[in-house]
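Suppose a colleague, Dr. K., hands you the sequence of a protein chain of 494 amino acids and asks what its three-dimensional shape might be. Before reaching for any lab equipment, you can write down a predicted structure in token form. Begin with the sequence itself:
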Amino acid sequence: MCKKVLLILTIGLFYSLSPLQAQFGLAPVDSIQPLDSFTRIKNYLPGFDTTQPGSGTTFLISSLVVTGNKKTKPTILLREVPFKAGMQFSLTELIDLFQRGEQQLMNTTLFHTARIYASKFEGNCLEVTIEVAERWYLFPFPFFSLVDRNFNQWLVEQRASLKRVIYGMHLLYNNPTGHNDRMKLWVVNGYAREYLLSYEKPYFDRKMNWGYGITMRTGKTREVNFSTGGDKQLFFRSDNFIRWYSSIGGELIYRPKLYARHSFGFYYYQEKVSDTVARLNPDYFGNAKKVIRFPDLFYQFSYIKMDYLPYPSKGLATRIKVSKLGFTPSFNLWQLHWKTVAAWPIGVKNILTAESYAGLKFPFNQPYINRRFLGYKDIFIRGFEYNVVDGVAGGYVRAQFAREIARINILLPGFIRKRATIDKIPFRLFAKVYSNAGYVYSPTTLNNQLQNRFLQASGIGIDLLSLYDLTIRIEYSFNNLGQNGLFLHRTSNF
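The predicted structure, expressed as tokens, is then:
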């Protein structure tokens, strides 16, 4: 019955979009631009005489000009393009390289727009211009949150106590020195307290192959996810602090070319919980311990070759991570994680996306904090958003078919356009259908039902894309347990 309903809703969704577009004049813009050879030549080589045969002609890039980069250093832009001055290419190769260069520049998340084109011709010699519009790089995020269920309870019953408030500031400063570096400063106080400082610099050598990142973090909370029951997180809350944590470490990053990246990291962690937490779950750290200290060594390989990383229509991205946590018999964990995403354009308006994830934790006998698997952060199965699945081995596969149905640009007020690098806010709208399935193995199940069981869900949804890689996903899912629901997801590169 659910499959029939899903099929009817999907067909109705796609057919209902046509009159909507006609009514509001929202002509869809193809996610993959249907440019013919003539249009591509005019776009990337505007001064080229298309009446002359050029398929066998070789062009020499005599010089590179960078414009629009008010803060970003030219070397950062030149590092991302797959060509240099002095190189020779055929006409077809040149156009493909220009397009790949634009995609690489956009995937740095430094720019609103990026365009590469031949600005001058002298025979077969070209001057190539790299033109960008920079984003805003400084993002302070003040926030204020109540611990209690609602404002009246906090105001009347708790007498507006500031001890039951979480407040602070998240500061994200991208590109502070113009070298695509990133700095984060988290200051959180009140019911929970956390302080975080991190800095990442992609290159520190002349060849621009090696980079580094460092992070320091400390905090304490009055609430702890001490166990899992009924496939949901179980929390213990107190008026006093019951969990303390801190970590420090860094990583070396090696990126010899454009798409592959190697990371070698070392972090040191310390965590402590109260006597009550250790009594509620003696297996939280294992052996009823209240304090753990351990190192974390890891190696990560990533390969990213996509046209637009936040919402790709073409390309491949994969990430493999091997890590070792702890060296004592009571805290000893090897981890392997592998995630891959691939996208293919189907025609000029449609995108087929496939995603897979696999994880392994060894040895299998692990304390509670090392058994968290699906449902945490971005590793989850759609249709099971209200659940978590703990275990030591498993994964999922996912397929999605999306169709771009509209692209809208909202013009900014004049006083904002004078100060900004853009004059409009773009929105892209996609309709989609999807299906995913997964499995998690756990030596122990306790009071949970989703472990050691095949999980599957399908659904339909709408994706909205806007500035700064903001993606909002509205999805309605059906799972193989007979459950269904509407889910909202928000992702961004902030």
